[in-house]
Amino acid sequence: MIASETLDALLGDGWKDYDQWLAEDGPGIPDRVAAAPEGTLGGVECRWKAPDESASGLFDLRVLALPAGAMPASFVQAFATPACDASYDSLVCRLVRVEDGVAILAATLAASEEERHGDALTRGIDAVAASAREQGVTAEPVTPTDAWSTNGTCDEVGGAVADLTDGTFSAGYWEGSEQPEQTLFAEAGVAQDCPMYSDSETIPEDETFRIFTVSSYPGGQWMWSDLVDGATAVEVDGAAAAASFATADDEAGDLYVTDGVNILIVGGADVAFNIDVAERVLARSVE
Q1: In this predicted structure, what is the pLDDT of residue 29?
Q2: Higher-confidence residue: 43 or 134?
Q3: Is the pTM of this model over 0.85?
Q4: Helix, strand, coil % (nearest 5) of the chain?
Q5: N or C, where is the chain less crowded by C-beta within 10 Å?
Q6: CA within 13 Å, CB half, 217
Q7: What is the distance between the alpha carbons of residues 254 and 33, in angstroms, rounded to a whole number?
Q8: How far is CA 233 from CA 113, 222, 262, in A?
Q9: How far apart (Å, rounded) are the C-alpha atoms in residues 37 and 214?
């Protein structure tokens, strides 16, 4: 998406693909292929890690390119100038521009709102726009069908799993908040994240406190083989296929489920609990 020599100028010599950095030097996050709802829209996202002590002052650079019609005007307007939003204990600064039918988002982590890196974000967008023009890239979105499904709203998902606690599950993030890209993909109908956690005021003392997320990817079957590469198949009632990278029932690990068209990922809890959640969500969707 951006030529190596351009990344050298933007980030400094010694930059790495972000996934490579996570695997080699990152904070111990498992090496997994992430879901890519932008691909369902015909888009692509790339991210790179700047070298430590980079003269650029950047920690990273992430770019997202979508067909212009797939990015709402409100999103474009919100980031027409560099703007920063909280992401856990960090800030993410974003800039968006539409060039030749391509909506391009550039983003980077920042230490403060004063440090918005507007020049670097602009240069990142310039590089992506130039690459798209030179390569003549054509978007190939997945065509929506009546079989696309999010398995219900987050309220309905919460209701489906309510019997898994003797207390209640609260909807929302235990820490952090929904990011603008998540809102964009939800509004576009290609992803829905439903975070939940045990309500500390109602959970019984002998019950495990849980923080988990149910994520749906309508029309996401195209990414199934990449998501579960190396995972172990597991049985989930109502699923066409299911897999997990964790194998013991009490081992934490994301659960990947498909009905042959849509993908459901349950993460943050142990395998047995994730399976219980997935079976209830799938059963609710066919009622």
Answers
A1: 59
A2: 43
A3: yes
A4: 30, 25, 45
A5: C
A6: 23
A7: 12
A8: 45, 18, 17
A9: 15
